[in-house]
Amino acid sequence: MFGFRPDGKRVKDLDPIQLIVPHIMPSRHDSQLHIRYECPCEPFDNFIRDQHEKGEQYDYMHIVIASMVRMFAKFPRTNRFVMNGRIYKRNRIQVSIIVKKDLQTEAADSSIKMTFTGLESIKELRDKVDATIAANTGIDEVNGTDKIARLLTYTPNAVLKFLMWTIKFLDKHGLLPQAIIDLSPFHTSGFITNLKSIKGPSLYHHLYDFGNVGFFVSMGKESIVPVYEKGEIKPGKRIPLLFVIDERYCDGFYYVKATNYMRLLLKHPEHLLEPLDALTEDTKVLYGKKAAQQAREK
Fold this sequence. Notes:
The chain is of the alpha+beta class. Helix 3 (60-74) crosses helix 4. The two termini are 39 Å apart. The strands form two sheets. Strands 3, 6, 7, 8, 9, 10 and 11 form a seven-stranded mixed beta sheet that branches. The protein has a four-stranded antiparallel beta sheet with strand order 1-2-5-4, with no helix packed on it. It has helices at 16-24, 42-53, 60-74, 122-136, 144-153, 157-172, 178-183, 252-267, 289-297, and strands at residues 4-5, 8-10, 32-40, 80-83, 86-90, 93-100, 109-116, 190-194, 215-219, 223-229, 232-246.
């Protein structure tokens, strides 16, 4: 209420265009940007092989999640969200994923959300990811998100509609309890769907209007494609990474810098072996006379 939320702090020092954009595009489904990146697999494979020789086990998803978390830590404006026409900076770095409880068509899915400091090395991040997935897979495993979803479905359809309307209303006005936000995979910095693990093609996944996630990555099955290098065409292994992002809380220049940084990490995952020294502060944006004065001082 009044700009205060348990999962973020309102950003007030914005240029006028950014302040008005959430009112021009009030929903995430009409403010989505789509980016396709054919990511080279050779750096992934080399890193995984080198680490395997040292007794460490990694996979593609570890590298993608670690690169995303590091991007949020270095470029904190990408870890913002829009709610009720206001822009907030998130107070935590979180990543949600969908896991299959068992590799059978009849097995249910489960949503899990992991919280990171942003300072982790890829080894620390891998251990947390693997432990969380292990705790949520298996036919008999039921987490808090599964329990509350099942409880809601026990209610009649009319009651369920009213409950969902109430939850959305409370969320919109910053009144949704922290306990529910903690269980919701839709209140998160980024969401990843790993279709590669089931040999599926990558796809652009929409952003949910429920919750506040504004960064979605879809991983598809890798393939061999023709690659032009040094004047000749040769076969190259590529994995499609499809990004869908909310354009309202971050300007294009900043987004390009941030996603280019993530792409650099994907090409050089060895950079993720060392933990980050410190988080970058989400500083205010200057415009008008203040921006001109700062430029003169530099």
